[in-house]
Amino acid sequence: MKERKGKYKRKTLETEVEVKINLDGKGISNLQTEIYFLNHMLTLFARHGIFDLEIKAKGDLEVDYHHTIEDIGICLGEAIKKALQDKKGIKRYGFTILPMDESLVQVALDLSGRGQLIYGVQFKQERVGSFEVGLVEEFFKALSYHAGMTLHINLLYGKNSHHIIEAIFKAFSRALDEATREDNRLDNIPSTKGIID
């Protein structure tokens, strides 16, 4: 089987981010973002998707978390795209409904080459600790666009913001794992166009 690893670096006047991902990993993560709630969510993403994930990120956190979280999303999306190469032999689509205590989240995605996010989530609280819940949407918007995936995230119901966000990251990881799995019945690109772009 071909090696499906991707890495991407981004340096701006606001942030410096490096991401490495192995789609055929063991769920191991090494995360250095200084945003500890995001570290927790990305640890869950790696573990439940069975991806190996390494992230080093520095940013202008004294301003707020926005620039750093958005740039981590950009870099993770680009790393996923690089790991998938031409997408030959993958299932392409992934779908998960995942419970987290009182919350239930639905995630569906298509590795279509066309990046967009459809986000049907509303929170009752504005923050989990120091983390602004609105940044979850910004993270997935950047990730989906740069990975070239159509991503639907919907909260079916839930109250606790921590539980909702945790369910989103776990459901996304499982849907991505399903979509990136290689199907041994296929030896071509999963599109009648012959390319996914």
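(the above was protein one; protein two follows)
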Amino acid sequence: MRKLIFATMTMFLAATCASGATVTPNAGVRFTGPTSAKPVNGFGDTVTFLTGRTTLKRFSFGTLGCFGYGTFPTGVDPYGISIAQLQKAVPVTATGAFTITSADASYSGDQSTKLKVSVVGKFVTSTSAKGTISIVESGANGGSCGPVKMTFTAASRH
């Protein structure tokens, strides 16, 4: 009976470890994909990051902010010129979950605007991830707004 219990537990542990290994991606893989932000001038928003062993590096996305920056000329990708990039890596657990809260982000839009970004997500497979980005802005005039939330899906690009 002990052998049966030991064999059953060993198989369960092996299955659990195997399923966890397939959820986390290899290090050095670039992921990119769309966010739920509304398209502007026919251009959609994109999230991009690079996987590390236990982190997501260079996590970036386009954002128009919540203060509002007016209109953009026809043919110009507003998300391509308004990029936010986290200044810290996003930790990833052994199960493929990732979370960071109120992280500073550099912003190529209005330089006087400060962004605090939270990201929550999970690798669905070793080649795809889903999550939510929340942004809180602080302006030079002392005003603040947010959180503005958007979801994203990202897949590995080889």
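Reviewer note on protein two: The first strand starts at residue 30 and ends at 34.
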